[in-house]
Amino acid sequence: MGTIPRTPSAYQYPLLIKQLLLSPLATAPDREITYQGKVRYNYRTLNSRIAKLANVLSQYGINSGKTVAVMDWDSHRYLEAFFAVPMMGAILQTVNVRLSPDQILYTLNHAEADLLIVNSEFFAVLKEIAPKLKTVKTIIAIKEDESNLPIPENCLGEFEDLMAKASEKFEFPDFDENTQATTFYTTGTTGDPKGVYFSHRQLVLHTLGCAAALGGAKEQGHLHREDVYMPITPMFHVHAWGFPYLATMMGLKQVYPGRYQPDLICKLIAEEGVSFSHCVPTILHMILSSPNASTTDFSGWKIVIGGSAMSETMAVNAQKRGIDLFTGYGMSETCPVLTLAHLSSRDLEESSEHQALIRSKTGLPLPLVDLKIMDEHFKEVAHDGKATGEVVVRSPWLTQGYIKAPEASEELWENGYLHTSDIGNIDQRGYLKVTDRIKDVIKTGGEWTSSLQLEEIISKHESVQEIAVIGIPDTKWGERPLALILLKPEYVEKITEHGLRNYAAKAIETAGISRYGVLLQVRFVKTLPKTSVGKMNKRLMRADPDALCL
Questions:
Q1: Catalytic member of 121, 144, 333, 466
Q2: Catalytic residue (one of 45, 112, 282, 443)
Q3: Which residue of the set 186, 187, 248, 388 is catalytic?
Q4: Is 448 known to be catalytic?
Q5: Is the pLDDT assigned to residue 211 strictly greater than 60?
Q6: What CA–CA distance (Å, rounded) separates 237 from 336?
Q7: 186 catalytic, yes or no?
Q8: Pick from 150, 175, 194: which residue ends a domain?
Q9: In the chain, how many domains are there?
Q10: Can you give the residue range of the structural domain that contains 125?
């Protein structure tokens, strides 16, 4: 089969990140981008600052194939790096600043980063790891305050000082759309973090896929040009779920909050008119529990919840505050968004409890996403909402492997599908429901029990602030479920572990899940450990649950 003929003068349009800037510059050049309400500029200035950053980096040896690492909070500077670095043909490494210093060192060395842009808040970490950095030769410092912190060795200068001296003109070249644009490292619960990577083509297609899904929603979860966007997901994590690229392509007003301070976030929502965000459940709970939340009008705020499961209770409570809360699903390896839990017009006519059932599902696949549920023999299961198996997927924006890890890469892509290690089902309407991680399913009495199902049931009790269910060894049953529960402050010493266990046992029986679920034990905890991106760290919980308990 032949390719289409092309006249010699025809332009072959590569799918490059720079093309995402065409629309806002043409249709919304004066729309605002703000950092904490302190820094304000429009899309014209964003474009000139992207060129300035490229000139700064080019001056110090960054060109095609070189890697620029960034350690910063959610800021306009990070947004500029999202564009400038890959548009040069270089690779942007977003560094997870919540990892341990040793892990940060590992990711910088493993990625062979050439230059590091680092916020002064992380100078102490940099000082600790600097002697062991193998490839980072130069550093650009970000100093936001008037502190007298010493500038790190090998520092080229302060970010804004260098930007002020740079030209506003830079000719970003065309190149192969399959050129690597970004890399970052998964926060796996065991072993060293694994590096994933994405091309220009993948990031552009992911942006378009998200735009089609969110723009196709009739009412609930609909994203439009007049929305005001604010990420509440660290920009080091999976391109902040891809939404800064989408918001920029659409020319939305953008609000960057920096380090997450609940009162500041509430202030920005009120003053800047924020209408679209994304975050993990723990961050949303932190915001809604802050002192300023009681006087903040959240009505009309659309939030995509990802990273970990959203409870039906959270969905109902959010609706009471006027928040349009719904689930998105993906992972580091998938760029990341694969599904969104949009409601139909018919669903919106139902009760908030009914809506919560849909909002808390994992959602409907985005356009161009081929998602299946496979049994242990790699056969697709029925879409009846009951038959479960592993979620596997194909789409044009999935990582093609792990950096320098061929065996793990082949395991990830066994049988030509990317394996998520998530267990789930698909109902007759096409909604995916992830019921557990493969490693978190609890085998009791020879039967599998879903920790997520148990968490959902118990979280409905009014006293529960946070919950995690893990499997613990048991001589008779093999494993039995243990619910680790953080109580709301007003319920401490007013409810007993025994009382909550009896509630859970009755609710489990009523829900009709595995009879072995009633073997559940309940313990109250002073804290629940999280990963660096806000997910429940069940590996640590399983290692020593007694250490967490009151």
A1: 333
A2: 443
A3: 186
A4: yes
A5: yes
A6: 10
A7: yes
A8: 194
A9: 2
A10: 17-194
